[in-house]
């Protein structure tokens, strides 16, 4: 029997020995028929998430130990959040709490976002070209509530740094979003006003590093004066910033994380 045929038969034998429904644990490599790894007790990785092992990160000069966790492989999208918004948000006040944080009874707070809806805030949607874009204009309050409904939480800045080390944090130039947003603004405000509004939104983001999307985190920055209002740490590749938790920004998005059991077995 030729060598190639032997190798092929060996592969068939191996595949037949592992049930098709098994998943391979990313922590220890064990094939498992159930939802918990039989060797290290890691739960099966949820769809759309990635396992981040325990790691050490350096963030703004601080060395931080990060415990293992699951983190979304990419940003949350408008397609994902719209069903939750339409089933949960029942008042304009609540809508404003989730989006932009700036309430008015005429829905003007949605003017610089892709969101559209009826006068009472129901029937929320976005143009088809926005469905799979990262969700922006969400307040941290809104991001936290949405993720909680999915069984997730906001990651810490250190956890996002660990995700970046794993190659998961991608740089998104906000100019890519500007092109889509400007088109929306032109259709709702008129070509001239819409273009001017779009340019105003992105004024001051002249360098590639400044134009990268930020992400909400669960961290509260140390040393912030109470008079400045409640603040949160925001993260972008290789850095941290600060933003108000009750404001939504066109260049801040988010993703979810899941805490893993502290009883995971070590190798």
Write the layout of secondary structure elements.
Layout: H1 3-17, E1 23-24, E2 31-32, E3 49-52, E4 55-59, E5 62-66, E6 69-72, H2 78-88, H3 92-98, H4 140-149, H5 157-165, H6 174-189, H7 191-201, E7 214-216, E8 231-236, E9 239-244, E10 252-253, E11 257-259
Parallel strand pairs: 7-10
Antiparallel strand pairs: 1-2, 3-6, 4-5, 6-11, 7-8, 8-9
Describe this structure in words.
The protein is α+β, with helices and mostly antiparallel strands and 267 residues long. The chain has two domains: 1-44, no CATH class; 46-172 and 212-259, Alpha-Beta Complex (paralog of FGE (formylglycine-generating enzyme)), CATH 3.90.1580.10. 30% of the residues lie in helices and 16% in strands. The chain is built from seven helices and eleven strands. The strands form four sheets. Strands 9-8-7-10 form a four-stranded mixed β-sheet, covered by helices on one side. Strand 8 and strand 9 form a beta hairpin. The longest helix is centred in the last third of the chain and has 16 residues, at 174-189.
Report helical residue fraction.
25-40%
Q: Structural class, please?
A: alpha+beta
Strand order of the largest sheet: 9-8-7-10
Number of helices: 7
How many distinct folded domains?
2
| Span of the ends, CA to CA | 40 Å
Q: Report strand %.
A: 15-25%
Can you tell me the residue ranges where pLDDT is under 50 for at least 5 consecutive residues?
6-18
SSE pattern, N- to C-terminal: HEEEEEEHHHHHHEEEEE
List keywords for this structure.
7 helices; 267 residues; paralog of FGE (formylglycine-generating enzyme); alpha+beta
